[in-house]
Structure formats: C-alpha cells, structure tokens
C-alpha cells in the first residue's frame, strides 16, 4: 500500500473474537494503531479515550447493536464509521447510512477490500493528514493535485487527475463506469458513459500502458487498477 499513516487510530468493535484478532493483526501490520471492543458500552468508552479516526462496527452485537453505537459515536466524535453487515441485510445498510455510517462492508469480506474502504474514508475525512502517497509506481500528491508515474510527472487535465486519483484510491476494486461517472463527473452529469472509456484511453496513453497492466478492463464490469 505504501501509505505511511503512523499514529492513525482505528477502533474495531465486534463480539466475535476471531474477527477482532484477524483485523487487529492485519491493521497493526499496516501501521495503524488499533483498539478493540466487544460490545457497545466498551466501544463508547474506548472511543472517548482513544479518539479513533475510523471505527469499524459490526451491526449484530448483543446489548447495544452497531447502529446504536454508530448513532452515539457520530454525535460525539469526529470519526469515520464503516459498518460490517451480513450478506442479505439490505435494510441494515440503508439504516446504517441514514444513521450516519460512512460506508459498509458485507461479510464475509477480504482484508484488502476493508483496507481500501478505510483508506477511502481517511482520504475523504482527513485529507490534511496526507502529503504524498506512494502506490506501486504511482506517487500521488493530493495537495498539489499531481501524480507521478515511475518518478515522471504526468501532464493531466483536472478531470484526468480526478479519474486517476479515484482509480488509485480504490485500487484492487472493480469500478463500474456508472460509479466512476458518479464520483468523478458528479451526480448531475448528463452525458454518456462512453466518456469514461475516452478518458481511460487517454490515461493509458499518458502512462504508456499499452499492455493494460496498470489500468485493467474487467469485461462487463468496469475497470480495476493494479498498483
């Protein structure tokens, strides 16, 4: 990943010890400071003392459920909340988002997916913590709106910058044209989805990615960046 975020605090709240251990180990390995809690009350106490940047909350917990913890955290703390929800609980996701959750991950999830979501939240909510971020051959400087590839500055238009930045931010995840349009061009963009293809082609030209080894096309699904 190459995002050195030492001093970055994550609170993991889940009543299943094996999930907690798995996340604690993985996140500490990435350089995060991690605190864990097995129920809502201890989560609130930990949040007060630990002041996490991101809280990962399981919806299903005995006593105070993840929704209630989310609601209380959002009232008192400046924290990004990612909910862990069961596969088929669509209402849970809607409910979580209306209570102020910032994102959700569906169980069972891969650690990479959760990590990508965590980085996306950090970027959105704590952008001032970033100088330059290195992802494989890319160096992203979001303050200057500059991206280098293999040490060479890319000449990008603002839209190209936004697109490549979004792809890199979510690297490893498959992004549909619809999602890309929404996040890069905005909800109200009335144009054609093919504009995404045009811009992807232009980015591939600029980084010399004829083989599509960095920006991959996933047939029928969208695009994925391997950084």
Write the layout of secondary structure elements.
Elements: E1 9-13, H1 17-29, E2 33-37, H2 40-50, E3 54-58, H3 66-76, E4 80-85, H4 90-98, E5 103-106, H5 111-125, E6 132-135, E7 138-141, E8 146-149, E9 152-153, H6 158-169, H7 177-185, H8 194-207, E10 215-218, E11 222-225
Parallel strand pairs: 1-2, 1-3, 3-4, 4-5
Antiparallel strand pairs: 6-7, 7-8, 8-9, 10-11
> What profile does the largest beta sheet have?
5 strands, parallel
Indicate the CATH topology of the largest domain: Rossmann fold
The helical percent reads 40-55%
- CATH class of the largest domain, named Alpha Beta
The CATH superfamily name of the largest domain is: Response regulator
Oligomer: single chain
Low-pLDDT residue intervals, each spanning 5 or more residues: none
Order of helices and strands: EHEHEHEHEHEEEEHHHEE
Overall pLDDT confidence: 86
Strand content: 15-25%
Question: Which structural class do the helices and strands define?
Answer: alpha/beta
Number of strands: 11
The shape is: globular
CATH second-level architecture of the largest domain: 3-Layer(aba) Sandwich
Termini gap: 8 Å
- Number of separate structural domains: 2
Strand order in space, largest sheet: 2-1-3-4-5
Count of alpha/pi helices? 8
Tell me the Rg in angstroms.
19 Å
DNA-binding region: 130-227
GO cellular component, one term: protein-DNA complex
Domain OmpR/PhoB-type: 130-227
GO molecular function: phosphorelay response regulator activity; transcription cis-regulatory region binding
């Amino acid at each position: 990943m190459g995002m050195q975020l030492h001093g970055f605090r994550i609170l993991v709240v889940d009543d299943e010890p094996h999930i907690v251990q798995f996340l604690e180990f993985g996140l500490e390995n990435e350089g995060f400071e991690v605190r864990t809690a097995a129920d809502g009350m201890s989560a609130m106490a930990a949040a007060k003392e630990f002041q996490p940047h991101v809280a990962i909350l399981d919806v299903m917990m005995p006593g105070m459920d993840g929704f209630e913890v989310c609601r209380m955290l959002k009232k008192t703390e400046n924290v990004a909340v990612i909910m862990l929800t069961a596969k088929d609980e669509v209402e849970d996701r809607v409910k979580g988002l209306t209570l102020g959750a910032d994102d959700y991950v569906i169980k069972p999830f891969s650690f990479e997916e959760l990590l990508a979501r965590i980085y996306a939240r950090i970027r959105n909510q704590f952008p001032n913590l970033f100088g330059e971020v290195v992802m494989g051959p890319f160096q992203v400087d979001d303050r200057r709106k500059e991206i280098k590839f293999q040490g060479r500055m890319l000449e990008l238009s603002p839209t190209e910058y936004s697109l490549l930045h979004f792809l890199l931010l979510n690297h490893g995840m498959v992004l549909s044209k619809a999602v890309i349009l929404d996040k890069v061009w905005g909800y109200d963009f009335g144009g054609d989805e093919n504009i995404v293809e045009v811009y992807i082609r232009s980015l591939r030209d600029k980084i010399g990615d004829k083989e599509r080894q960095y920006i991959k096309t996933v047939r029928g699904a969208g695009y994925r960046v391997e950084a």
